[in-house]
Design brief:
Number of helices of chain A: 3
Strand order of the largest sheet of chain B: 3-2-4-5-1-6-7
Largest sheet of chain A: 5 strands, mixed
Number of helices of chain B: 9
Strand content of chain B: 15-25%
Order of helices and strands of chain A: EEHEHEHE
Helix content of chain B: 25-40%
CATH class of the largest domain in chain B: Alpha Beta
Shape of chain A: globular
Helix content of chain A: 25-40%
Oligomer: heterodimer
Number of domains of chain A: 1
CATH topology of the largest domain in chain B: Rossmann fold
Shape of chain B: elongated
Structural class of chain B: alpha/beta
Largest interface: A-B, 23 and 28 residues
Largest sheet of chain B: 7 strands, mixed
Structural class of chain A: alpha/beta
Radius of gyration of chain B: 20 Å
CATH topology of chain A: Transcription Regulator spoIIAA
CATH architecture of chain A: 2-Layer Sandwich
Distance between the termini of chain B: 46 Å
Number of strands of chain B: 12
CATH superfamily of chain A: STAS domain
Radius of gyration of chain A: 13 Å
CATH superfamily of the largest domain in chain B: P-loop containing nucleotide triphosphate hydrolases
Number of domains of chain B: 2
Order of helices and strands of chain B: EHEHEHHEHEHEEEHHEEHEE
Strand content of chain A: 35-45%
Number of strands of chain A: 5
C-alpha cells in the first residue's frame, strides 16, 4: 500500500496554486518536491500550497515545505501555506517550525 | 575497563552540579531542598522545582512568602515521558538571564512503574552529558525508604554527589553518563497477540493504517490516535533512513494504553538523540524528538546489532 498523495499545480493570476491531498511522508515527499519545482518554473510572484485535503504530514513532509520556504526566501519570492487545519497546525507547532511559514489558517 | 569520572566540586563556580538527595521523611525532604534552594532564593537567582504535585504543595507551604520566587512545575506532566525533561530544562537555561539556575527535579517517586523509573534513571545518567558546562545546579530527591534498593543504587551511579542526613559526599559508584545496566537491557517481548508488519518505504502507509486500526479498536481518542500514528510514522521513517531501508512495526494494546514498537538494523550513535531542543525552523533529525513530544513513554534500546524503540500512549 503505497502512500497516496495527490498534487496538482495550476496558475491563478500571479500565483501558482499547488493543491496537496492525501498523506505527505517520506515515501510521497518527492512528489510534492517535483510539483513545487514545476510551480516555480513559471516564475509566479507567489506559490500557494493549499493543504485543505492533506490528511497527514510528518517530519519528512515538513522538510519539503521548509526547503520550499527557504528557496522562496533566497529568491525573494512568496510562499504561503493555505487551509492549514488544526491537526496539521499541531504538527507544525510541535516541530517548532510554524514561525518559519506564512500561514493562512483553514476552516 | 575502569574509567574515573571527574567529580566537579559542588562548591565550584563553573559548570553543572548534579546531586542526589536521599530523604527518609517529609522533614528530611524539606530540609534537604531548603539547604539547596535557600541561598539562591535569598539572592534572587532563578529557582525552579519540578515535583510530584503533592510534594510541590508541601514545599510551597514550607516556603511561605518566598514561594512566590519559586517556579513550581508539575513533574507528573513535565516528566510523564522522562525523555522530555532534558530539553525542557535546556529551555529554562536558555531563558535564564544571568547567574546560576537552581533546579530541583524529582522524576522518580514511590509508586512510579518500573518501566518509567528505568527511563527516568536513564534520563538522570544523561543529565551528566547534556550540559556539563552550563551554570546549573540540579538536585534530585529520592525517597530512600520507599524506593527499591536497585533504584537507590542506580541513583548513586548517576549522580557525582549524594546528600544523606545533611552531608554531601562524593559517590564512589558514579559512572558519568553510562546508563545503569538494568535500564538498558532488551525490552520484554511484545504480547503474542501483537499485530505486526514488515515495512519498507512502500509500506509506510500500511504501517500507519495498522496502528490506526489497533488504536481505534482499543478506544483511543481521535486526537491521541493521530499522535500515535504520527509517532509510528516517524519511527518507521527513521528505520528506513537509518536502519537500512526496512523495519518491523508491532502494535498492541494494554488495558490502559496502546503501544507501538519499531525494530530495525540501525544504530543510534547519539545518546542524546531525541532530547535536544531543536533550533526553530530546522527539521533535520527530529523524528525521535517528535515521538518524545507525542507519547507518554518512549523506551529506546540500541546497539550495533540493531535498534528497538517502543512508544506508548495512555488511554485517558
Amino acid at each position: 500500500m503505497q502512500t497516496y498523495l495527490s498534487v496538482s499545480v495550476r496558475r491563478l493570476g500571479n500565483a501558482a496554486v499547488v493543491e496537496v491531498g492525501g498523506e505527505l511522508d517520506l515515501a510521497s515527499a518527492s512528489q510534492l518536491e517535483q510539483a513545487l519545482k514545476l510551480a516555480w518554473r513559471d516564475q509566479p510572484q507567489e506559490v500557494v500550497v493549499d493543504l485543505r485535503q492533506l490528511s497527514f504530514i510528518d517530519m519528512a513532509g515538513l522538510r519539503v515545505l521548509l526547503e520550499a520556504q527557504q528557496q522562496a526566501d533566497e529568491q525573494d519570492r512568496k510562499l504561503v501555506l493555505a487551509h492549514v487545519h488544526k491537526s496539521i497546525r499541531r504538527v507544525l507547532d510541535l516541530a517548532r517550525v510554524a514561525g518559519a511559514f506564512t500561514i493562512q489558517d483553514g476552516s | 575497563m575502569s574509567i574515573s569520572y571527574e567529580h566537579r566540586s559542588p562548591g565550584g563556580a563553573e559548570g553543572q552540579r548534579h546531586l542526589a538527595l536521599f530523604y527518609d521523611d517529609d522533614q528530611g525532604y524539606l530540609d534537604g531542598i531548603l539547604q539547596f534552594l535557600g541561598p539562591p532564593l535569598a539572592a534572587g537567582e532563578q529557582v525552579v522545582a519540578a515535583l510530584p504535585p503533592e510534594r510541590g504543595r508541601l514545599l510551597r507551604s514550607r516556603l511561605g512568602e518566598s514561594a512566590d520566587k519559586l517556579e513550581l512545575i508539575d513533574m507528573f506532566e513535565l516528566g510523564r515521558n522522562p525523555s522530555r525533561i532534558i530539553p525542557e530544562v535546556e529551555a529554562l537555561l536558555a531563558r535564564s538571564s544571568s547567574g546560576r539556575l537552581h533546579y530541583v527535579g524529582e522524576p522518580i517517586w514511590p509508586g512510579r512503574s518500573q518501566e518509567e523509573i528505568r527511563e527516568a534513571t536513564k534520563h538522570e545518567a544523561l543529565i551528566n552529558l547534556a550540559w556539563p558546562d552550563a551554570p546549573i545546579s540540579v538536585l534530585c530527591p529520592y525517597h530512600s525508604r520507599e524506593l527499591a534498593p536497585e533504584v537507590l543504587a542506580d541513583a548513586e551511579r548517576t549522580h557525582p554527589f549524594v546528600i544523606r542526613g545533611g552531608k554531601t559526599v562524593r559517590s564512589e559508584a558514579y559512572r558519568g553518563p553510562a546508563i545503569p545496566q538494568g535500564c538498558d537491557e532488551p525490552l520484554p517481548a511484545p504480547p503474542a497477540g501483537a499485530r505486526s508488519i514488515t515495512f519498507t518505504a512502500n509500506q509506510l502507509a500500511a504501517a500507519r493504517a495498522l496502528v490506526r486500526e489497533v488504536a481505534e479498536s482499543a478506544g483511543l481518542s481521535a486526537a491521541r490516535t493521530r499522535d500515535l500514528v504520527l509517532a509510528a510514522s516517524e519511527l518507521s521513517s527513521n528505520a528506513i533512513k537509518h536502519g537500512h531501508g526496512a523495519g518491523v512495526l508491532r502494535v498492541w494494546s494494554q488495558p490502559r494504553a496502546v503501544l507501538c514498537q519499531v525494530e530495525d538494523r540501525g544504530y543510534i550513535a547519539d545518546p542524546l538523540a531525541g532530547r535536544r531542543l531543536p533550533a526553530p525552523g530546522a527539521a533535520g533529525g527530529l523524528g525521535l524528538w517528535m515521538v518524545n513530544r507525542l507519547c507518554d513513554l518512549v523506551q529506546a534500546r540500541t546497539s550495533r546489532r540493531g535498534t528497538t524503540v517502543r512508544a506508548l500512549v495512555r488511554l485517558d
